[in-house]
Amino acid sequence: MMISNSGHINSVANNIYINNISKTSVKLEGNVGNSGDNDQIVLSNESQEFASYLNQLSSMSTVRTDKVSFYSKKIDNNDYKIDSGNIAEKILDGCFA
Question: pLDDT confidence of 38, banded at 50, 70, 90?
Fold first, then answer.
């Protein structure tokens, strides 16, 4: 399989196999040889770079504990104020932009 069109990178991100890219035999573009009976995946340089970014993102925590702690303390101390006017303005700006 050759992935070289940057327009299809998002479809690669949704592919479950991209998370296991380090476990798969990957050859660099241009180094394709006779694969014999073994199946191989060949990714373009752009796809390999994208896969490394995707792997870095997947290893990051999905919960930012520092922000959760910050806002939890504000809520507990009744210091968290919501500016409803600002929120309404942003909603309207998004509707009429």
Answer: confident
Q: Cα(57)–Cα(79) distance, rounded to whole angstroms? A: 33
> What kind and span of H or E run contains 3?
strand 2-3
pTM: 0.34
What is the side-by-side strand order in the sheet with 26-27? 2-3, 41-43, 26-27
Q: How many CA atoms lie within 13 A of 20 on its CB side?
A: 7
Q: Chain-wide mean pLDDT for the chain?
A: 75
Alpha helices in 18-80 (DSSP H): 45-59, 65-76
